[in-house]
C-alpha cells in the first residue's frame, strides 16, 4: 500500500469572501484542492515585486496624464477653425509612444 504524502507545515492565508470564492472556483476547475492550488500557484507564478508594482502604478498615472493631454488637443482641434499646431500634436504622440514603451518594458519583465 502506498504511503500518503505528509505535509508537516501549514500556511495560513486570509481572503475576502469574494477572493475565497474565486480561488475555490479556480481550484475546482483545475481539479485541485484549494490548498494544492495555492501551493502550485505560489511555486510556479512569478509575482511582481513591490518596486515593479510601484513602477506600474506610476506608468498608469503617466498614461492617464498623456490621455488627458490628448483629450485637450482633440478639444482644441474640434473648436478651432484655424490651423493645427502640428508641433504640439507631434509632442503628444511622442509622449504616448514613450509611455507605451516604458509600459512594455514593465510588463515584459514577467
Describe this structure in words.
There is one protein chain. The protein is mostly helical and 110 residues long. It folds into 2 domains: 11-45, no CATH class; 50-108. The protein is 71% helix and 0% strand. It is built from 4 helices and no strands. The mean pLDDT is 82.
Characterize this entry briefly:
The chain contains 4 helices and no strands. By secondary structure, it is mainly alpha-helical. The chain is elongated and about 80 Å long.
Radius of gyration: 24 Å
How large is the share of residues in beta strands?
Answer: under 5%
Taken together, the total number of domains comes to 2
Low-confidence stretches: none
Biggest sheet character: none
Task: Provide mean pLDDT, rounded.
Answer: 82
Overall shape: elongated
Helix/sheet category: mainly alpha
Amino acid at each position: 500500500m502506498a504511503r500518503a504524502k505528509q505535509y508537516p507545515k501549514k500556511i495560513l492565508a486570509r481572503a475576502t469572501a469574494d477572493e475565497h470564492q474565486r480561488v475555490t472556483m479556480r481550484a475546482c476547475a483545475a481539479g485541485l484542492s484549494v490548498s494544492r492550488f495555492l501551493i502550485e500557484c505560489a511555486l510556479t507564478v512569478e509575482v511582481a515585486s513591490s518596486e515593479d508594482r510601484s513602477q506600474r502604478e506610476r506608468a498608469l498615472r503617466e498614461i492617464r496624464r498623456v490621455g488627458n493631454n490628448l483629450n485637450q488637443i482633440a478639444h482644441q482641434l474640434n473648436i478651432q477653425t484655424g490651423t493645427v499646431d502640428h508641433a504640439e500634436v507631434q509632442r503628444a504622440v511622442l509622449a504616448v509612444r514613450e509611455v507605451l514603451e516604458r509600459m512594455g518594458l514593465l510588463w515584459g519583465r514577467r
